[in-house]
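Supplementary Methods S3. Input chains for the assembly prediction are listed below.
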Amino acid sequence: MTPRKRRVLPGFGLSLSYTMLILLVLLFIPLVVLVYRATSLGPEKFLQAVWTPQARAAYGLTFGASLAAAAIDTVLGLLIAWVLVRYEFPLKRVFDALVDLPFALPTAVAGLVYSALYVESGWLGRYLVPLGFHGAHSRTAIVLVLTFIGLPFVVRAVQPVLESLDADVEEAAASLGANRWQVLSRVLFPALQPALLTGFALTFARGLGEFGSVVFVSGNMPYYTEIAPVLIVAKLEAFAYAEATAIALVLLICSFGMLAVINTLERRSRRHEA
Amino acid sequence: MSIRIAHVTRRFGAFTALDDVSLFVPSGQLLALLGPSGSGKTTLLRIIAGLETPDAGAVHVADLDVTNVAPREREVGFVFQHYALFRHMTVFENIAFGMRIRKTPSAEVEKRVRELLHLVRLEGLERRYPSQLSGGQRQRVALARALAVRPRLLLLDEPFGALDAKVRQELRQWLRHLHDEMHVTTVFVTHDQEEAFEVADHVVVMRGGRIEQSGSPQDVFDNPATPFVMDFLGQVNVFHGRLEAGQMHLGGIALDYPEYTHTESRNATAYVRPHELALERAPSQGTSLPVRVLHVNPAGAVTRVRVISEPFGVQLNVDLRPDDYSELRVQPGEQLFATPRRVRVFMQDDYVI
Amino acid sequence: MKPDAARRRPGVGSGRPTEPAWGRRLLISLALSVLIVLVVIPVASVFGYAFSKGWDHYWNTLLRDPDTRHAMWLTLVVAPTSVLLNVVFGIAAAWALTRFEFRGRTLLTTFLDLPFAVSPVVAGLMFVLLFGATGVFGPQLQSWGVTIIFSTPGLILATTFVTLPFVARELIPVMQAIGPEEELAAITLGANGWQMFRRITLPNIKWGLLYGVILCNARAMGEYGAVYVVSGHISGQTDTLPLRVEKLLQEFDTAGSFAVASVLTFLALVTLIVKSFLEARTARDLEEAPADDAGLPPDDIEAPAASSEPASTSAAAITAAGI
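Predicted structure tokens for the full assembly:
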């Protein structure tokens, strides 16, 4: 009898075909339909739909606000991760757990409470607005709430790397005569850099697609505080499906581009580990 | 149950793990597959168990072709290298697993598990979890679990590889003992030649996906078929020389080698084990090399002496028995003569090491 | 999953050069201020605003208002259904990806991440384009009397999409770390596929699975963007709890809106507590040292378990938890 190729563990066909079926129904077919609908507009109409001044302003704001929030989160995330890993203080475990709250809290709730807190009559706004800090219905508001949403990414990317750094590397550097600042900048920062980059990219990617929180805080004024996902919804509610689809395709391409960047960063940092 | 492996080949991409391997294991034998990593020994074991399928060839167990039989129907007991104990089950449940699958009545399960716990000397530990056991204990649980279903074959993948020297020594003797009691056909994989020789009835040396030599431990050790086997089975001194008319010429000395009768001279390599070299204060007629003692290590069952043969520029290892050592009293720096008592010669064109 | 094993490793922070005491105190207070301003104050304020019109208004909104009650019920239908779909999908995908070699395996892993990268609004839009009144399958479905968009099936579809990778992404590193050996052992001992899954695989992955379920559920209950697009906002029919938050706000019932938000916040806090418990639990599993009565070297059997750490703390796991 000639040997027949056989998988030793059971369930290969079943599990793979189920996985493919779900991906087909939920992911591939919807994506194809979206791309098809957007491209069936024809290049001219497509360009008209995605390159209006209003849309351009929305892209700019979406990118700018996400970038700003990601940059802020990178600094804050590093600070928080550092403190959580290196120092002891009361309620440390509680604060550590709280870092994940932006993951667990529905974005609509975040948007609701941020808008309530920072408006002129809000519990924080009444002190901040007179000082010129407009934390609601402004571009600042968008950056602020995106900073909240993205906070865990950098912390959770940096924390394990910081923990895995051996004390002897720092001790060795110190014993070679490096001062504290030199140890930080020459030994620690290069080791943390891939994790920081990954965290930054994840925060940025998350910001690009965020809707629930921003729609509550921004005020959604076209040209000024309207982000791309909100613009899509506005077009949908005006039954301008073609335009909405075209803008959605632009946003989708940006998001997939970011995903590719993140995957590359991850592969690179994994090579570092090995 | 006998095992017959016929022309089995297995490739992983461009790498050939097994290259047309044939082997017969008679019923009741305890066989060792011995070889360095990458020699294909584990692949062969997994093919016998059905955990791997051959690209070509067939496996028969007791004259039945099992090549396309699923592993769960082969009734083999397989002991994994890292034991693969079910971490969420107690020792008792681990051993009972195969019987529970077969819906064995629980009174019988209880009885059989007790029996096996006794056999592997783990009584009293049946409530423990694998993480609460030492390596040697885990190994024995894995063995008991494999034996519980009364397998037709027992297959062990590097059974003692992850254990420390002392426990390994104990378990080797115990496995030999167990096999003598049970007589189930057993194949185990090892890279440790000492282990293979101590435990097995039959040793199969593998290299690069092929069987290099197969025979009884005595036979393989005394008559290595190839330089590779010679080298793999322990330390060896290598001489390059010429073979001519029944004599092996190594520099100034000539050794009898009656197997080669041609008058035409050929390059050859001579292999001499450290214990097959004698050290003497006076030269023997034409068969001894002048050497200088470099280092003496008297710790252990034999005294290991390192010497250099200056005309050859080669260093040699010599093992002296305690009596010889106390008689000779070698000191570093001394000039002595080394005489090979036994030489194995391999033609250079035949083999590449 | 983030086992704390490394964090409690002896020696961390002990012999290491460090900052002067004033520097440490400064950094700690800065970090805590950030967390207090960004996280603690907003969360506390949710409850503050919720009770700002008194207990009666709070309970009236939650218990008496029929539309809010319906939203609660709808969320309790949509979220568990999505979670269930994701559990089956997650186990199937993780099994195929970690236990078999096949062409396109890496590509499939990448596809698994795609739903994270799609903006929830775009996800909702895709389903509208498919099943809406003017969508590809919409008219056909309508003629059969099936409505997906602006009704519960659409909500379930959209929610399942945005939470699709959660369970799979949790299970993949866990199953990779455990390895196939125990399953192979079960097979050689005569177990069939179901017996192997039920008795070996499932008990081994249960904590990872539960962790994935918790994260998936939190996201499913709180999903806003995708369901916003497919729901149609019909009060008492297609409003889930997060949509009800917005609806009440539009009706100028701020306190009521916060009352609903407080329920969601409470659920988020419960999620965090369960999550911390599960993390401590997995860390303990990893640390459980064997009773080494024979004085043996460290066990190889622990080695694969310990290797789960880099996998699970990678940025991929963070993606799973967040986007």
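Chain B has nine helices and 20 strands. Residues 165-182 of chain B form the longest helix (18 residues).
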